[in-house]
Amino acid sequence: MQKTRIKLNFTIPLWLAVIFAFFLLFDDFASPINIVSQQTGNARQKDIQVPPPPLTEGIFPCSECHAEMETNPEPRELVDFHDDIEFTHDEKNRWCLDCHDADNRDMLHSAGGEPIDFKESYKLCGQCHGPKLRDWRAGIHGRRTGNWNGQKQYLLCAHCHDPHSPKYKSMKPEPPPKKPGNTK
Amino acid sequence: MSIKKTFFSPEKLNRRSFLKTAAMTSSAALFSASVSKEARAAFLKTNFKSMSKDDISKTIQRLEAQYTAQYGKKFSVSAKEPLPETFFAYGLDISRCIGCRRCVYACVEENNQSRDPQIHWIQVLEMDKEKGIDFLHSDLYYDHETVPHEGHFYVPVHCQHCKNPPCVKSCPVEATWIEPDGIVVVDYDWCIGCRTCMAACPYGARYFNWGKSQLPDEEINPQTHYLGNRPRPKGVVEKCTFCIQRVREGRYPACVEACPVGARKFGNLLDKDSEIRYILENKRVLILKEELNTQPKFFYFYGT
Fold this sequence. Notes:
The complex is a heterodimer. By secondary structure, chain A is mainly alpha-helical. Chain A has a domain at 45-71 and 78-160. Chain A is 34% helix and 5% strand. The termini of chain B are far apart. Chain B has helices at residues 3-8, 15-33, 37-44, 53-71, 102-110, 166-170, 196-200, 244-247, 254-258, 275-282; strands at residues 76-78, 88-93, 123-128, 152-157, 176-178, 184-186, 206-208, 223-225, 237-239, 264-268, 284-286, 298-302. The chains are: A mainly alpha, B alpha+beta. Chains A and B meet through helix 2 and strand 4 of A and helix 5, strand 10 and helix 10 of B.
């Protein structure tokens, strides 16, 4: 009698383990639909990867030079430095310090004055370009690479649009197709 | 008159029946003896749709060996089945496309399209903004210094993966069909090259291999799918497959990733959170030649 009880004590947890393992396996195989919809839907934000911002080499961090300099808050045309920047982004109404932060030189700031990291510059752009930000978040505005049902890579606004002159630059097209007629 | 009677009764054995029998036996002997095992298997192969799992895996092995020997690169030919609960659709933002043709050449490389004679699955049409979408006055061969060209916009056209495809209906041998995930595919080994589908397609999206396809060895893509980008023989029809070898692995098609302006979108119509559903629900969408009731799963939209 005792012997069988001992035997039972071993077999029941074993069976439970087998059933549990089977359940895990079964669950994994039977519900790829859930996994797919989770990846594109609920887990959308966490599956999005964004590359580092395209800062001009040798320019960042800004504080390296600006920490020693006094801030001149007067809007003016820059002559000695940064004069290579072509500024055509509502240039009549705004200038550097509307986006770049004067107190923390390595940050941007929103219209309300809250600091914004260069890595999250889309928050700054989105203040004026709200519908574009909405479409960008949904994956409609801008280039996407990776998986249509999983992890994907986004680009920041600044990767395609120079923030100082944001119109998309025209480019040389690839060669046209050959006209038919001389097939071998 | 039965065959048996003609051929084998001695009183009927004349010159004609003798020659007939001789020709039949010798051709059967030739076929079984002189032709290699591979060639025989290729000849006796049936339509991909009616092949058993076992047949498919044998065919895949044969093709992999053949391509690996032919191109000197380890080839993989997949026959991956559709993912469950997927029905693919494509979105193209004509307010963004700048006509740079990056997609055309990304497609050529990904899908092993013949370089000479040249085959392009994507045709980028330049249209006059004043005329709107007007195929009659569109230009496929534009060659500007830079694009977009003043006063013009661009409409890339490739297979629209219709839900009601005239090409599939017109094929006399059922060598082309719609897969359960919505991709219109061709079995290149079953196609007889009659080009009826090309005449039937209102989008000019099917292309014929007039010559032996020329593929530079170093540029060949060895990751292939049976119904997708595996090398095509001369004399068959081919077309865009939404990059079946990529999308069934969960990846974006090559053209989507190549587009520098992000005008190309792709996703699962059955997933309410997908990019394509967002487009259909929030953007102005149009399909080409709507009046033909082809029901394309290729949606042009205005992102602005």
